[in-house]
Amino acid sequence: MLMHQLLLDGADRTPDKLCFRWVDRDRTLTYAEAVVQMERMAGALHHLGVRKGDRVGLFAHNGMDYLAAMLGAWRLGAIAALVNVKFADELEYYWGDHEPKVVVYTHDMLPAVARARAACPSVEHIVCMDGPQEGAHSLPELMAAALPPPPDPWDERATAHLSYTSGTTGKPKGACLAHEPTVTAARCIGERLRIGPADASFGPTALSSSYQLVANLLPPLARMATINVMGRWTQATGWDAIDRTGATVFVGNPTVLDEILVESRARGRSPGRIRLALTGGGPLPPTLKAAWRDELGLPIVESYGQSELGGFVALGFPELVPPGADLVRIGPALPDKEVRIVGPDDRPLPLGEVGDIVLRGGFMAGYWGKPEKTAEATRGGWLRTGDLGVMDADGFVTLRSRKAELLTVAGVDWYPRDVEEALCRQPGIRQAALIGLAHPDLGQTPTAFVTLHPGAAVDPATLAAAIRPEVPYDLAPLVVKAVPELPMTPTGKISKGDLAALVAAGRI
After folding, report:
1. The pLDDT value given to residue 7
2. With contact defined as beta carbons under 8 Å apart, do 274 and 282 qualify?
3. Over 80: is that where the pLDDT of 491 sits?
4. In this structure, are residues 210 and 310 in contact, taking their beta carbons and an 8 Å threshold?
5. Cα–Cα distance for residue pair 365/308, rounded to 1 Å
């Protein structure tokens, strides 16, 4: 099935059902209206020369036109190539990598777009979502012209969506997601979460993230539910928007979920009709999962995936985890994928042993323009996630660490999550990140950086002693430092690479 066929099916069956809401401006489209916008966008892009396999660059804030541009590109058999607006200074790299023919952008991004366009000869046209700008086509005028699109090329195996990895182990790579395996994954996710037509999902994180695609967009479309997107999130306005829209499924990273918890405490209730939160992009602190359960009576469903998947490695269930149960394990694999824990020889390990997480059964077509990197990541037909984890007798996966983030201290491997979660269980600690700093004798000095809840006062020197009974390491070399904030990626997870760079530069 094609990604946009989910929208077409919804329009056939429930044409007047609310499909999309852009929360910031309270603009809405029914399923039937969304199809009209998709067709007009496809006609506009075709008029500008976009054909099957061409890349349509999207460099914009969340909004209705962003959704229409994605759908219009898919409808033509083109590839929606997404770059987060926070990477404006690096735009030449991204465009030089995937060579878009047409770029659709928001007006405030013109300086970056003009600079990158001059360096990227592949770009034949730029289209401003907000009206006429120098050197750009006006998207409102193109849409008003209602230019007819060609017949759908209908290639389920074609790449439809290109979004970039976080670049934690080198330059970001464009992961190419094809229609069919991504739709199958989305349908499995929707069923696991028990999403139905009465549900409304809500996602405030950037549409440029593949997480939005597989968590907030395609699964609700597959279940003919309503989808809310938001561009400018704050703790208070975001809480109000969830409440006002009657959202039932919230999709966000742990940082945003913590803000909802704090705001709900202040207001004395959870927002509106929310029945579950779905989180990803980084490990979920067990303390946050327990607080949602105990204070709000709501489950946080943890997902574990990456840009290369077009789905998830593992996903929990929309149920409250009982008191005393393991809050760290994520969930089992979904029906569309086979997940294994293997050793260095690629042989499956016994249950309970930590090893490399690999999977097959539906993942990216490859990294754009990087056949060697693709072959390395998909050796033997299995996607190598680069993560270390463990599987239990229930088939639940627990993520232990990124291989690149594993610390070795005096010859002993440290899993950062053990220390980070123990620190987060201490009163006053909001976030924790453990990195290794070079040491001539130990190899690495384990150094933890923590942020505090408002009004909290903590003595970092005493934290190592406080968590000693909870972790299996000799904590004598552990250094703990309190900082005002931690560097975050555009998808809302702690950026340990940036953290290490700040330390090296003496800025933290």
Report:
1. 98
2. no
3. no
4. yes
5. 9
* CB neighbours of residue 273 within 10 Å: 15
Q: Quick count: other Cβ atoms within 10 Å of Cβ 198?
A: 12
* Token pair listed for 123: 């770009």
- Mean of all residue pLDDT scores within the chain: 95
Give rounded-to-5 percent helix, strand, coil for the chain. Answer: 35, 25, 40
Taking 60 as the threshold, does the pLDDT of residue 169 lie above it?
no
Identity of the residue numbered 485: E
Amino acid in position 354: V
Domains and CATH numbers, the chain: 5-15+24-178 (3.40.50.12780), 406-504 (3.30.300.30)
pLDDT surpasses 80 at 239: yes
Q: What is the H or E stretch that residue 227 is in?
A: strand 226-229
C-alpha closest to that of 165 among 484, 468, 404, 418: 404
Q: Which residues contact 238 (CB under 8 A, 6 or more apart)?
A: 204, 230, 256, 259, 260, 263
Residue pair 354/336 in contact by the 8 Å Cβ criterion: no
List Cβ neighbours of 282 (8 Å cut-off, separation of 6 or more).
253, 254, 492, 493, 494
Tokens representing 277 are: 């939160």
Contact 201, 252 (CB under 8 A): no
Note the pLDDT tens digit of each residue in 447-457. 999 999 888 98
Radius of gyration of the chain (CA): 23
Distances in whole angstroms, Cα of residue 439 to Cα of each of 409, 410, 443, 473, 500: 9, 10, 5, 17, 14
Task: Show the tokens assigned to 343.
Answer: 């050793």
